[in-house]
């Protein structure tokens, strides 16, 4: 995976994988009364295998986003939540309150169990939860419970929220509630193969819709959602799959070429508008399938050999540093000129300069590791909190934030110059 530019994986688990093997005595009360209580012996070895997988990923410098894919009662009506009864009992019925309370405690325990692994990049509270009147309140309670953990690493765990297919609402929620000590991110899933509308659109039209260099509806929508969430948006699931009719409508003779156009248009859009993306799946059971299997997509050529645009490149660090010093000079002068012309008192422009310089230093560390800053806003908030602690409160702390974000953007431009 690392050789193909993968630096993070999303690992879906059920609550029963965790509770059955993490500490059966301690967590027995949380399993009591759940649908999987009687199956504890089946899953008692699961958690140790999950931890072994996290350790193996760490050995290859790969991060792990742990996703609670199945919660007590079922957070959606689909079988992938762990239940096939379609009742969605986490939100409906006599036991919904108990299921929600139990799930929150499970999430706190999960955060604490994972806190010691420095390659765990976050915890996703629920996969594809059904939208309902309790969900936002549940998210707020779960976030608060994790942030009040006695484990200092757990309380700072990055938290990812499934968008429940009301993406705009939860993009606003993430944008309003994230902070330096409480990083949040939004997870949206992109598939274009399930609805009649999807079926009646050609592969080229699907690709045009999401092409980041065009004026496609989906590309514009992604840009807007990302802006609302301050850039803290990931695509937790996507694939190269399309309905057969989309290929039949295509004017491209080769199905592989049509799939490649669709797959790589998505990839470029996610590179530009999101902080990360996870192909579903890494390896699909059964025969080769470039639509749903990343390995096959790479082997067949519908996906590039590496997801990392920097792979194989040797950035000229001296050249990049030179560009950034000039960017710092130009941006600082422009910032001072603009705000001094607005009036409003004695500004503290040195904060802008310092923010820009710190962003450059951070970006260079990422570049040396063959990567880029992803969650710029969250990192800016962390640096801002440290800056405030060091320099004291001020009405002009925003200048530091503006400088940091400008510096991070300049580093990206310099990297691809």
UniProtKB/TrEMBL annotation:
SUPFAM superfamilies assigned: (Trans)glycosidases (SSF51445)
InterPro entries registered for this protein in UniProt: GH, Glyco_hydro_5, Glycosyl_hydrolase_5
A Pfam family matched in the record: Cellulase
Swiss-Prot/TrEMBL GO biological process terms: glucan catabolic process
Keywords, ordered alphabetically: Glycosidase, Hydrolase
MF GO annotations: glucan endo-1,6-beta-glucosidase activity
Cellular component GO terms, alphabetical: cell surface; extracellular region
Residue span, Glycoside hydrolase family domain: 2-283
Alphabetical list of Gene3D superfamilies matching this protein: Glycosidases
Family of the protein in this entry: Belongs to the glycosyl hydrolase 5 (cellulase A) family.
Protein name: Glycoside hydrolase family 5 domain-containing protein
